[in-house]
Amino acid sequence: MITVRDTKDVWFHDSKNWRDFINLIANADQLIRQEQRRGKNKLRGTIAGIKSRDPFANYPVIFLPKRGEAIFIGDTHGDPDSTISVLEQERCAARIRSGEPLYIVFLGDYADRGKEDVRNLEIVLNLKCAFPSNVYLLRGNHEETNVGQSFGLLGSCIKRFGYDNGQYVFQRFNDLFERFSHVVVTANGIIGLHGGIPVDSFHSLLDLRNEEILTEVRWNDPSEEIDDYVYNYKRGTGYLFGKQAFRSFMKSIRASVLIRSHEYVTAGYKFMFNNAFLTIFSNGGSSSQSGYRDFILYPKYVKVDLSKPIKRWDMKHVYDIRYSR
Ligand SMILES: [Mn+2]
Fold it and tell me: Which of 99, 116, 204, 237 is 20 to 30 A away from residue 291, measured at CA?
């Protein structure tokens, strides 16, 4: 267990009952709708080669500004200790409160696998509500109704709130997940998403309004063994994409490097495609709550200076938690 330094901080707020939880979800929902309206406005600019005005209401792309620092957190899968350890080590709340331009991007998969997935979602939603312009929650493939039904979240909601109220909270979670953004883009050349690049009929970020393409963003995986793309036989859904597919995608959106989570990697991070591609996995595995015990010793996360152009990922971007026991 980590030693908690400030138990009064926002992420320790406890919803007393299911009604509190419904309010928390409703607040997050409202904030996310607001930020998507802001994202739509940014599209009138020239970022990522888009010059025309976007006619769509809910545009699932977040644009981060040119200055400050960004922290990327990968799958936490029902392990609040992993989530809190990053927030604590980086003193996120204190730094944001002091006015530092610090941005925290969660790459999805908050629920399932670990036992404390309701609590983990409560923490990230509290964080979003406390610091809406600094915290961004992307949608992973576990933020889908049928996945949450089979892999843990529905059961956790019922366990915590009872059968009827638990089902209702689960339903509201899924309504909220449908609003989550899918992609974050930075001015210094990073694109962040949960699973992988879409490979079918993708031309620009504007295509991200298409639900089939967004499903690919949540599910796809990279492979060094292929050039273009093939059916993802490992998961039975989506695609595996190779070097050539990745290269042309990055060219079409004018980004240099990509960060994603989605796959468990033993070291907690993995570079691919000449270090232009980075998988980060932030479930630390050493907590009793974690679904990945015995594997990763310390949660990993990624930190970048947004004011400096980034051409390749390297070890200086990868951080791990040092527990105080
Ligand atoms: Mn995933």
Answer: 237
